[in-house]
Amino acid sequence: LHEGILRRQGARESAARTYARALPIVPVRARGLTIEGADGRRYLDCLSGAGTLALGHNHPVVLEAVRKVLDSGAPLHALDLATPVKDAFVTELFRTLPAGLAARARVQFCGPAGTDAVEAAFKLVRAATGRTGIMAFTGAYHGMTDAALAASGHAQDVRVTRLPYPQDYRCPFGVGGPLGAELAARWTESLLDDPKSGVPLPAGLILEPVQGEGGVIPAPDAWTRRVRRLTEDRSVPLIADEVQTGVGRTGAFWAVDHSGITPDVMVLSKAIGGSLPLAVVVYRDDLDVWAPGAHAGTFRGNQLAMAAGTATLAYVRENRLAEHAADLGARMLRRLGELRERYACVGDVRGRGLMLGLELVDPEAETETEPETAYGAGTGAGSGAAPLAAPGRRPPPAAPALAAAVQRECLRRGLIVELGGRHGSVVRLLPPLTLTDEQSTAVLDRLADAVEAVEA
Ligand code: PMP
């Protein structure tokens, strides 16, 4: 069964398939942190549906909520009509929103994926401001559809102006810390203000409070507040992409709660659907410039996903799982720090809450695999957006092959982890927020063994 399915799907599915390549397993049963393969092997799943499963696999409250809808005879497909199931979801969602937004929030249900909500957010801010440009950050990930893709990663696109995202390790300015964040903020300010930069005022600026796919890079709160002030002063809507960071993942219900900022727009998906596909864009009411029908789509508001999502949001809130994530995540990060001390190939460990990363490097090599490039490239920015580069320390080159080896060694030890980062060199942990102390120890023991095997 196991080999046959792997062989057939490998032959029939697009070469673009991703997770299936690195993880040749055939899950047939799952509960909580554990997945069981068709070959009978059991795995601790720290990929969690790419950060979707806040409560782990098949949590009883999620299953019960879905069964309740199924047994009630309610329509499973209801377009965007008003239903009791949707009413309960929106009520629970609004209860959790940052206070500044909750009082004046509007929600638009989007196509089922995060990328659909990103597209909707761009469309909304363009309609609301009459401007077209979008500003996004280096290393960002916002999705795989056209505009979301343009705003992601290193891809250059005429409509997107790329801004430096502050990071300590591999700081683009070679300084890290508060100075690196200050330089990144100044760069943003110069692109917003300097007429010589050639960048028109954008329709919106999109920000991940912690970059996930980009390699688990938490933005400093002071920098986030600074970007909020810069955008507010210039009436540029700030779009917080909380697709991955939302619902307690980073140790606050929404990651923007750490800095206390109120975004104008929030893009939400993944965990809000309690493991089923659901995506929304939430925004302040004065941005609600859309005419009826201006944003449509057949699969907006899946009833089962809303029910699963309501149960998940309520469970995370009532059981204070964000606090649990903050506490357990901090302890796990300390243990990851021990790995950095012990193994030269572990260049950095970082994260926030239960969104953790461990970066593999090649300590023998002397130069960067890819020198950091000028951030102005491709933005139309001229001399106005003066590079602020400062010479400084450079970490050893990223080691994507080592990271892939750690991922394989983890899998051999029954641990599923994901890779990320612009070089693919960051091992990422996104365990369910229900993770216990005992489970976290099992996860870290297996990871430590895997690193040891690779270093040896
Ligand atoms: N934004 C962020 C921050 C994400 O992490 C992702 C998915 N990893 C997306 C958007 C896109 O979501 P989806 O894959 O559901 O389209």
Could you describe the 3D structure shown?
- It contains 15 helices and 17 strands.
- The chain has helices at residues 2-12, 19-22, 48-51, 60-72, 84-96, 99-102, 114-129, 146-150, 177-193, 221-233, 256-259, 303-318, 321-342, 400-412, 437-455; strands spanning 27-31, 34-37, 42-45, 105-109, 134-137, 160-163, 204-207, 210-211, 217-218, 238-241, 265-268, 280-284, 346-352, 355-360, 415-416, 418-420, 426-429.
- Strands 4-12-11-10-7-5-6 form a 7-stranded mixed beta sheet. Strands 1-2-3-15 form a 4-stranded mixed beta sheet. A 4-stranded antiparallel beta sheet has the order 13-14-17-16, covered by helices on one side.
- The radius of gyration is 22 Å and the shape is globular.
- Mean pLDDT is 92; it is low at 369-388.
- The chain binds 4'-deoxy-4'-aminopyridoxal-5'-phosphate.
- Residues 50, 113-115, 118, 141-143, 208, 212-213, 241, 243-244, 269 line the site of 4'-deoxy-4'-aminopyridoxal-5'-phosphate.
